[in-house]
Design goal:
The complex is a heterodimer of chains A (about 110) and B (about 110). With about 110 residues, chain A is mostly beta strands. In chain A, about 0% of the residues lie in helices and about 50% in strands. Chain A contains no helices and 12 strands. Chain A has strands at about 5, 10-15, 20, 25, 30-40, 45-50, 55-60, 65-70, 75-80, 85-95, 105, 110-114. The mean pLDDT of chain A is about 90. Chain B is mostly beta strands and about 110 residues long. Chain B is about 0% helix and about 55% strand. Chain B contains no helices and 11 strands. In chain B, the strands form 2 sheets. In chain B, strands 2, 4, 5, 6, 9, 10 and 11 form a 7-stranded mixed sheet that branches. Chain B has a 4-stranded antiparallel sheet with strand order 1-3-8-7, with no helix packed on it. The termini of chain B are far apart. The chains are: A mainly beta (about 110), B mainly beta (about 110). At the A-B interface, β5, β6, β10 and β11 of A face β4, β5 and β9 of B.
Amino acid sequence: AQSVSQHNHHVILSEAASLELGCNYSYGGTVNLFWYVQYPGQHLQLLLKYFSGDPLVKGIKGFEAEFIKSKFSFNLRKPSVQWSDTAEYFCAVNANNAGNMLTFGGGTRLMVKP
Amino acid sequence: DVKVTQSSRYLVKRTGEKVFLECVQDMDHENMFWYRQDPGLGLRLIYFSYDVKMKEKGDIPEGYSVSREKKERFSLILESASTNQTSMYLCASSLTRGPNTEAFFGQGTRLTVV
């Protein structure tokens, strides 16, 4: 069965600091990878996704993520965070033999201090 | 824009009650999902459906059932609510059956069982 680990449960940064949130998964086959974001009081929305091709993917609001197959990782990055990035971030994996099942990590709650 | 609507934002129910959570999507999506979201555990899949009257168990189906009589509507049923089912419940939908599709989420229903 596939599983997803997010290493940091809570991250606190000051504005303009750089961000990297870790995500590792445990499935050895072909995977599709996602980062979702949940702003306070809002629904989950897609930040970016990786299916194939260039392992460095760019998403909305200046976020990017790099798929490193050898490390089973899909870390999320942003060079300079803003107060409005305060949210909870979820990594998700769908393995090609898992039908439509998206498996989520435990989430990372990011707080950006103004 | 895809819209996934959950009938209630907040619900308070008594132990032993039968509880219905309703979800409607307006984009003719084939797949619909029910997750529960708990702090530190991320989102865990309860049930999903890839067609009318079809359902498959997710990771934590015990104590729940689902109904999909129409393509746009997916209901989650707690047959006899218990306090350990107090949680945030999220409904999602996606377009095709393949894994390479984005899931769109509703606003969530915060259920408290007392």
